[in-house]
């Protein structure tokens, strides 16, 4: 006699555990992505530059004009390291330009292009309408600032001290405004 199967599909009971295992890689990838975003957001607190004097950055812009942090004492300064091939840099370009236009009377923005060609960098600036001073890193300023990935943005107070470092893109206007407040003295009560 042949035993009677109560399963509608032979082997169906065997497929259920396997289908659960198929979700495991998806769950792991989503979990790792969440952890990555969490640590990227916290990266601004791990920089060794925070609370220290900024390196004496001095570059020549793509327009041929020199700009140096030493000449900007008394003003808040935002230094952004970027490259045209960097997708997160593209994500923040419009926001940084808008903030520059709104605050240029009190805060100077400087873009430092790294690991790029001049043609690609100029095309990036034109594509995003970036008007604040930008120039290539020809002497290794990224190393002196401790840049290990792009974008990297340094918020420097009027005394030349790094008050905030953001590693990764700045994509929320409220976060950017809060960081700007720190270097103009509003956020620190000064």
What's the count of strands?
7
CATH superfamily of the largest domain: Glutaredoxin
Total number of helices:
5
Strand content: 15-25%
Strand order of the largest sheet: 5-4-3-6-7
The largest sheet, given as strand count, sense and whether it forms a barrel, is: 5 strands, mixed
CATH topology of the largest domain: Glutaredoxin
Structural class, please? alpha/beta
Q: What is the rounded distance between the termini?
A: 91 Å
Structure, briefly:
Helices cover 40% and strands 18% of the residues. It has 5 helices and 7 strands; from the N terminus they run H-E-E-E-H-E-H-E-H-E-E-H. The chain has helices at residues 12-42, 87-103, 118-128, 141-145, 173-184, and strands at residues 58-60, 66-68, 76-82, 107-113, 134-136, 152-156, 162-167.
Structure notes:
The chain has 190 residues and is of the alpha/beta class. The protein has two domains: 8-46; 47-184, Glutaredoxin, CATH 3.40.30. 40% of the residues lie in helices and 18% in strands. It has a five-stranded mixed sheet, with helices on one face. A two-stranded antiparallel sheet has the order 1-2. β1 and β2 form a beta hairpin. The protein is globular, with a radius of gyration of 24 Å. The N and C termini lie far apart (91 Å). Mean pLDDT is 84; it is low at 1-6, 33-45 and 186-190.
């Amino acid at each position: 006699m042949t035993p009677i199967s109560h399963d509608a599909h032979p082997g169906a009971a065997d497929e259920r555990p396997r289908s659960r295992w198929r979700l495991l890689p998806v769950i792991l990838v989503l979990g790792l992505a969440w952890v990555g975003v969490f640590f990227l957001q916290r990266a601004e607190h791990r920089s060794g530059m925070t609370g220290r004097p900024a390196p004496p950055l001095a570059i020549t812009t793509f327009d041929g004009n020199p700009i140096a942090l030493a000449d900007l004492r008394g003003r808040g300064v935002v230094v952004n390291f970027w490259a045209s091939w960097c997708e997160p840099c593209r994500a923040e370009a419009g926001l940084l330009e808008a903030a520059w236009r709104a605050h240029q009377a009190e805060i100077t923005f400087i873009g430092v292009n790294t690991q790029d060609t001049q043609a690609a960098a100029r095309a990036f600036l034109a594509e995003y309408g970036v008007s604040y001073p930008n120039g290539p890193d020809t002497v290794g300023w990224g190393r002196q600032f401790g840049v290990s990935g792009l974008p990297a943005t340094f918020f420097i107070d009027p005394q030349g001290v790094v008050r905030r470092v953001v590693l990764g893109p700045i994509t929320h206007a409220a976060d950017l405004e809060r960081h700007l407040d720190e270097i103009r003295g509003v956020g620190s009560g000064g």
